[in-house]
Write a structure and sequence with these properties.
single chain; alpha+beta; 8 strands
């Protein structure tokens, strides 16, 4: 099983109660909840997260996180981070999904 396929399966399972819609974009499979993207499983097995920009510095200080790039070095902005596959092992995936889901929930109340 490829790194991306494994991550897609794990994200699908973790988000099953949110009834996500899967859409190919951002170089992988994006998971949309209530019409808004929460995360994407990228080809190389990294996770792309949509986060609250005010939490970016804190989350980027965690091992395995880096600013998300689009294409060849174009930053996606403070509301996007990428997490390397090694940081997603075990319970790592859940710890990274939490801030993305929290931001998604907060956006729904506005």
């Amino acid at each position: 099983m490829t790194a991306q396929r494994s991550l897609v399966e794990r994200v699908r399972h973790a988000l099953r109660d949110s009834s996500p819609r899967e859409v190919p974009m951002f170089g992988g499979v994006s998971f949309m909840v209530e019409g808004r993207m929460v995360v994407a499983a990228r080809r190389e097995g990294a996770l792309l997260l949509r986060i609250d920009p005010s939490t970016a510095a804190e989350l980027l200080a965690r091992p395995g996180a880096r600013p998300a790039l689009m294409g060849t070095g174009r930053p996606m902005g403070d509301g996007w981070i990428s997490v390397e596959p090694a940081a997603l092992e075990g319970t790592g995936l859940d710890s990274w999904l939490a801030p993305a889901l929290s931001f998604h929930a907060a956006q729904g109340t506005k």
